[in-house]
Amino acid sequence: MITVYGADWCEDTRRSLRLLRRLHVPHEYVNIDENDAALWRAKELNGGKRRTPTIDLGVGGPALVEPSNDTLAGALIELSMLTQDQAYERMAVQNVGDSERVLRTAAGALVLLASAGAPRGIRLPFGIVGTLLALTGLTGWCPVYHAAGMTSLGGPGDHREEAERRTWLIPRARRPEAAIAGDAA
Q1: Domains in the chain, ordered, with CATH?
Q2: How far is CA 124 from CA 69, 100, 136, in A?
Q3: Residue 135: phi, psi to the nearest 5?
Q4: Mean pLDDT value of segment 97-124
């Protein structure tokens, strides 16, 4: 069982927990601010330092300390906790970041409202556009992003304070093993 030693206020902890949930990897979260034994264990795994998150993969090897999403996903694949294809498919289920989801849902609702008062000839197109915007916001999956192999997850459109990059969109085609090779370089 994976144990995540972290703190509720820590952006990296929240990002790592979100990734584990998106990948459907069973894990236990322990808040080191509320549990002295967990704080002691986290410090033990970090050579006496208090750093969050510290992720104990439960295999007797070294823990991951403040890992990037790619590093964490790569470690899970390397330990056979999930396959590369499973990770790729599970991450493709959502390709719209949380801030963008709110914007899409609100924009879709506004367009739907506007379609009600629009001239008869443009009601249907407005209704379709509004419905599609709202649905992509509610589900977090955009067929256009999917077809283009793009994602806004991990960027400023997905929890701005926890963003791993400054650009809004990146190609989704980067698989976790590419991250492992990049981390080794």
Answers
A1: 2-93+180-184 (3.40.30.10), 98-173 (no CATH)
A2: 41, 25, 18
A3: -65, -40
A4: 91
